[in-house]
Amino acid sequence: MRTAAPRILTIILTALALLAAPAIAQDQESGQKIIKSHGVSRFGDLKYPADFTHFDYVNPDAPKGGTLRLSGFGTFDNLNPFVARGTPPLGVALTYDTLMVPSGDEPTSEYGLVAESVEYPEDKSWIIFNLRPEARFHDGSPITADDVVFSFNTLVKQGDPTWRFYWHNITKAEALGPHKVKFTFDQAGNSELPEIIGQLVVLPKKYWEGKDFTAGTMTEPLSSGPYKIASVVPGRSIAYERVKDYWAKDLPAVKGQFNYDRVTYDYYRDQNIEFEAFKAGQYDFHPELISRNWATGYNFPGFQKGLVKKEILRDETPANTQLFIFNTRLKKFSDPRVRQAIGYAFDFEWLNANIFYNFYTRLDSYWANSELASKGLPSPEELKLLEPYKGQIPDEVFTTAYQPPKTDGSGDSRENLRKAAMLLREAGWEVRNGKLTNIATGEVMTIEVVENQADMDRVVAPMIRNLRILGITMTLRIVDTSQMQKLLQDHNFEATFSVYPMSISPGNEQREYWGSAAADQEGSRNLIGVKNPVVDALVDKIIYAKSRADVVTATHALDRVLLWNFYAIPTYYSQGTPVAYWDKFDHPQIQPKYGVNLYTWWVDPEKVAKLQQAGVKTN
Question: Which end of the chain has the least Cβ crowding within 10 Å, N or C?
Fold first, then answer.
C-alpha cells in the first residue's frame, strides 16, 4: 500500500526539481520555446541540479596518487584512435575531453565538461553549446568554437566510418562566437541527437591542420584530458600520467574521479600468460574472461593470503551481446534457414557444463539482462509497430516466443541436428558423398571461422563435430589482432564471434550495427551485412522515440526481428562483470547504476603498505 509523502519531504523534492529544471525562453522568430540548461537528457529529465557539486557515486575528497596497472590483449600501432587505420592503445580516451560527460546513474543524461551550458528548441532541430572560457589543451592554449567545428567536420569526413553513421542526421556545425557552437539537424524530433553530439571529442585545429589525419601515428597528438601519455613501447606497453593542473579537475562532472597519478597498460598475446602475470602481481586489475580461471585458477598464494579480491560487479546495463555471426553478403549464408540450421549445432548446455563450469547464461536477446530484452509474445504496443510489416518479417515474430535451441547437456545433439537437416533440405541443400551440397549450384558447404583468441578452439570444436554430421566442414583460423581488425574492416570473413556493447539507451549506433546504409560501408560495425527495410524502420522508431517507454517498446520489436531472422547465433553472457584485483584500492559505497567506473576508485596507502610488506610489487 502506498502512503502519501510527508509534507516537508514533498517541499524538499519540489525544490530539488525546480533546481534541476532548465530555464525556458521564447524564440521570437519561430515562436518555439528555447530550453537553456547545464545538461542535456534525451527526454528532458535531469537528476542533478545546476548547482550540483559532484556525482553521487564519487568521493569528492578521494585522495590522489598511486598507480593503476592494467593489461591489454594483442597489440597497438596507432595513437590516433579516431580513424579506421591501425589499432589504438587501451586507455587513450583518458587524454581527451568531450563537450559533455554522461552521468553513471542516469540512462540518458549528460552534464557540461568543455561546454558549460546548452540551448535547444522544443523540437530539438538544433543545439547550441556554450563553451567554458577556461577550457584548455595540454599546451595551455584555449579550446574554442573553431576547434569544435573542426573536430566535427574532421571526424565525419576523415575519421572512422562509425562517426559518419552515428552523426548521420547532423548537417552543419558553425561557430557563432569564440565560445559558442551551433549544430543543426536535418529533421526535428530526433531526441538523441543533442545527447550524442555532446559526446564529441574536441581536437585542436592548430595541431592537426596540415597533417594527414587518416594516417597512423606513434607521436602523441595534442589533447586536453585528465591524463597525457608518459611513455610508449610500441605494441607492448603504454603509460599515462595525471595532468596535475588539469583545467577541469574541480568541475562537478569531474570531481572525485581520475584519482591515480599513473595508469599503465602492459600487452600480452596469450591469455594464459596474461593471467600468470596477474597472479605474479605484474598488474592490478583483471576482468576475468575465462570461466575456467574463475572456477579453478584462484589458488595462488596472493589470493590464499587475502591479498587478491575476487568479485562480480553488477550494474543495470545490458549484457555484452556476444554473437557467432555470419557474413550474409556471402550467397551460402543468405538464406535464414541455413543460418538457423547452423545454430542447432551450437550446444550451449554441453559447453556450459563441460567447458564453462556452468558460469554462463544463454543469450536469448540482443539486450539480455535488461528491461530492453523482448520476452514472451509481443505486447499490444509492440504489435502496433510490427503488424504493418506482416509478410515482410517471419511469422514467428507474432506467434512464438523466441527460445534458442536447447539440449540435455549430454553432448547428444541428434534431435537438434535432425531439425537442422530438415531446414537445410528446405533451403536446397543435401548431403552428397558425405558433403552438404547445394542442389542447384553444386557448391559444397564449408565454413571458415576467423578469431584472434586461440582459446576459442574449445568453443568451436563441438560445433565442428556436430556440423560434420550434417556434412559441413568447419575450420578455425587464428590470426593476430591487426589481421583480425583488417578482415573485419574489409568484411572479408565468413564467420566469427563478435561482441556488441549494448547501451541502456539505444539509438543512432543501431544504424551502424544493423542499418542497410552501413552494410557495404568499409569499416562499419554492420559486420553481418544486414539489409532489411523493416530493421531500418524499427531502428528509426528507437531513434525518434518520444519517451523512455517508446524506446523500450521499439527495442523489443527490433530484438524480435533480429532474433527470428537468425542473422547470428546468440551465445552466452555473465550476469555481471567478474573481476579480480590486488587489494590496494578503495571505492565509494555507492557505485554507478550503469557501468563499472574504475576511475572513481583510488589507491589506499595503507593497503599498498600491506602489499609491499608481503613482497608484492605495487608500482
Answer: N
